[in-house]
């Protein structure tokens, strides 16, 4: 099994989550534009944020408003990235990426959600060594016009580190610096992208029993419902 988990869940996002998702995307786009400028051609972080927003069907008007907010002179919103580390039910390692304008509020919320769901907040570095930062692209096998061998050759020529063939999709792993060239090459070839992101992928995974999986699902849903939480990574399989 590949290292990108819950492909089907990502492929079928709930409409009820879309509004909250747009809020998170807008915040991420604004911060990226503020830090690196409003032109995605010269700001890779902004380009990735826009791509992720478009993948969730965020309207272009919303995207442009978020860019303008980030490049404007309004300093009222000062957001910063923070990553929390800890453990979920059954000792599963968990990393939580946040974008916040109030560290005390966010830390309190994250701690509360972990405690409530049988986990606990750890110290910096307690689980980071169990993950590595990689580009991860999932491609729909049935909806992609080129064959497996041709696609594998294409991504490897453009810098991919690994190509994994699953029953319903292909999984492509890249270094962070090669993510955009590989993704662009896939799109130009007509590949049907299910998900694409620079993520913290687990070095190894742990098997979670049925009870732990159920508790982890509840924890992940609670965390992802928090406006400050951008991404959640675990090593549970």
TrEMBL record:
Region (Disordered): 1-20
NCBIfam families: PRK00110.1 (NF001030), PRK12378.1 (NF009044), YebC/PmpR family DNA-binding transcriptional regulator (TIGR01033)
GO cellular component, one term: cytosol
Protein family per UniProt: Belongs to the TACO1 family.
Record-given protein name: Probable transcriptional regulatory protein SAMN04489866_101170
Gene Ontology MF terms in the entry: DNA binding
Subcellular location: Cytoplasm
Compositional bias ranges of the Basic and acidic residues kind: 1-16
Keywords: Cytoplasm, DNA-binding, Transcription, Transcription regulation
Single Gene Ontology BP annotation: regulation of DNA-templated transcription
Family matches, as SUPFAM superfamilies: YebC-like
Organism per entry: Peptococcus niger
Record domain TACO1/YebC-like second and third: where: 79-236
PANTHER family, per the entry: TRANSCRIPTIONAL REGULATORY PROTEIN YEBC-RELATED, TRANSLATIONAL ACTIVATOR OF CYTOCHROME C OXIDASE 1
